[in-house]
Amino acid sequence: MSNIVSLAARRAARPALGANGGLTSLLSTFANGRRRQGDAWWLKENAELLMILSALGQRPPEAALAAYGAFHAGLEDQLAFHPQYYRMLLGLAVWLEDLGQPGDTAARLAARIAAEGWIEMEVNDLQRAESRFLLARAGQTVDLPGLDARLHRFMARPETFALPNPRAAYDLLHAIFYLSEYGRRPLSLPEPALQSLHMLGNLAWLEQNGDLLGEVCIALHYTGQALPPLWLGFLRGEATSFRIAPGPCEDSSDAYHNFLVNHWLMGSIGETAFGDDYLAGPMRFSIFRPLISPLREWSQALMAQGARREPDYGAMRRACAARLSPEALEVADRGMTESPHFATFFAIFARPVAISGPVRKGA
To answer: InterPro entries per the record (predicted)?
Structure first.
């Protein structure tokens, strides 16, 4: 019941957006000002932005969506030539029409995808889950027996997510996004899966990775969980730290994704999202990132301990302190005192030599 109440509250508290002109400028920039329309990076960036606005329940002004008119009109031809990209193309059609783009292109794409059985080309369960979700949004139901059980089994191993593993992190978070339909339906997870989210959140905190930590908080929110004040405070601080400069994005390394995820989180919890009046024309995003993260410092210091590694944070803090910067010590200390399940996380992260089995219980 608590999840249902939480979902209702989310729907009632839509984020405040900036002036229509600001959102129009933002969409125009992503559609025309950063990448060549239709290339792989353009598809990725625009799918992410449009998905987030759809998840937040927004309806941009017609002028904002006009930048995608020609692309939307050509999606059927794109699908015919690029069936291997059907998930990306279907997703773009779904999000655009969710946001108010006229037409039923998404339904026609989904009908062809379902009729030709393209979901059978997928090699893993996460891709199948995404396909099922997008097809359902476009009116096509597919039956994939056992899929949910396999996803839940994957999510219910916290040890996986206490170690740096970008593929596993992505799969955990997106499994939750697809199963919850990006917050459109309540999702109740068993305790081991929730602990997996906390392990990943502690890892992101130790790395000071706002991009990953933001997605963890969104996933926690979609499962009806309270957000740790330590994490949320860090992310609110990042929300004021982004810098947007005029000019094209010359490579793939700018902070656009961190920017989008941060606004997605703030909008999801009813705070202002995309509230600025953005520049007209090309823009690039930046945020300060330290060269060496506390996560890396701790990993190197722990590895240097060799057979002396043990699961207790206090003992390892004393043993590793000489190899750690004051910043790395402070971040870990704050995690230990303020971050939920940090002791359990650290007991796995330390990879203690004397412990042979998995560590599941603890603070």
So the answer is: DUF6902 (IPR054197)
Average pLDDT, the chain: 91
Q: Which of 108, 126, 144 is the last residue of a domain?
A: 144
Give the count of domains, the chain: 2
| Residue 266 within any structural domain of the chain | no
Q: In this predicted model, what pLDDT tens digit does every residue of 286-299 receive, in sequence order? A: 998 877 899 999 99
Q: Are 161 and 204 in contact (CB under 8 A)?
A: no
From 144, 159, 192, the end of a domain falls on: 144
- Domain of 51? 1-144
Query: Which residues, other chains included, contact 86 with Cβ-Cβ below 8 Å and sequence gap of 6+?
Result: 79, 109, 113, 118, 131
- Is there a domain that residue 17 lies in? yes
pLDDT digits 0-9 by tens, 321-362: 999 999 999 999 999 999 999 999 999 999 998 654 555 544
**Domain for residue 175, yes or no?**
no
Q: Structure pTM?
A: 0.92
Contact (CB, 8 A) for 226 and 202: no
DSSP string, 74-89: THHHHHHH-GGGHHHH
- Is the distance from CB of 161 to CB of 196 less than 8 angstroms? yes
Tell me if residue 246 falls in helix, strand or coil.
strand
What is the pLDDT, as a whole number, of residue 5?
A: 30
If one counts every other C-beta atom within 10 angstroms of the C-beta of residue 190, the result is 10
| Residue 120, domain member (yes or no) | yes
